[in-house]
Amino acid sequence: MTISDVGGAPAVTTPRRAARLRRYAMTAPTFFAVEYAINPWMDTSVPVDTALATRQWEILLSTYRDLGHAVELIEPIAGLPDMVYAANGALVVGDRAVVARFAFPQRAGEAVAHAEWLTRRGFEPAFTRHTNEGQGDLLVVGSIILAGYGFRTDRRAHDEVAHLTGLPVVSLELVDPRFYHLDTALAVLDDSTVAYYPPAFSPQARARLRSTFPDAIEVGSADAYALGLNVVSDGRHVLLPAAATGFADQLSQAGFEPIGIDLSELLKGGGSVKCCTLELYS
């Protein structure tokens, strides 16, 4: 926000936010299930309603299209229940796609599927030697990449990603296993604005975020624990978990337009709006 002096009285002016049309890829939760537990959100004893997950996912898909964004669909594959979390499959910048190298063998097949899909669409697949989990831990903000490590992506992969994309990478250490991917603890709102949950990061990472983004929105525990930072923004409209009402208020005060999406069934696997959305950065 900015402060102006009109008629002798200071007034707070909310900045104008501009949307930019985006290109996304998504995978339907046709085979979604919680068959194993590889993050603190997953509980194999809790039943999953795949039909409900599909209906919720379809609302997210239609919301993107109603806003004018292009969405391409990646065919789901039986035996890959986490494939609905399309963001984890790659980092796509321009014509280069850095394909994921997953930490857990249960998800390895997703990397193969993503590489084949991206190749068919004219992208050039590239691979890291060390573990990286795509846009789960690699988030583009303007002309830089914020890169998480500590639970899934190997810190050594960050240098590889910088080399493959030509973009500078800022490494951020995650310290709370509930926030095992960067996109569960930090949201990119536009090319210069982020929101994040400070306790999810090491002291050094928090200091780096504060120096790089002095106007960042710091989100409270209630919203973070609803996976409220797992959002997708077009620069104006911010699609976020419906339960993150406090964060929605913060977004409104900052000039964004929050749109709550109920993905409660997919939250059982540890993912929400961003996890389900692979952005194809131009």
CATH class: Alpha Beta
Based on CA inertia axes, which overall geometry fits? globular
Spatially, the strands of the biggest sheet line up as 4-3-17-5-6-7
Count of folded domains: 1
Secondary-structure element pattern, one letter each = EEEHEEEHEEEHEEEHEHEEHEE
Q: Quick one: CATH superfamily? A: L-arginine/glycine Amidinotransferase, Chain A
Secondary-structure-derived class: alpha/beta
Radius of gyration: 18 Å
Specify the oligomeric state: single chain
Major β-sheet annotation: 6 strands, mixed
Query: Helical segment tally?
Result: 6
Q: How much helix is in the residues?
A: 10-25%
Q: How far is it from the N-terminal to the C-terminal residue, by CA?
A: 29 Å
Mean pLDDT across residues: 95
Give the percentage of residues in beta strands: 25-35%
Instruction: Label the CATH architecture.
Output: 5-stranded Propeller
**What fold name goes in the CATH topology slot?**
L-arginine/glycine Amidinotransferase, Chain A
Uncertain spans: 1-7
GO molecular function: arginine deiminase activity; transferase activity
Pfam families: DDAH_eukar (PF19420)
Organism: Mycolicibacterium madagascariense
Keywords: Transferase
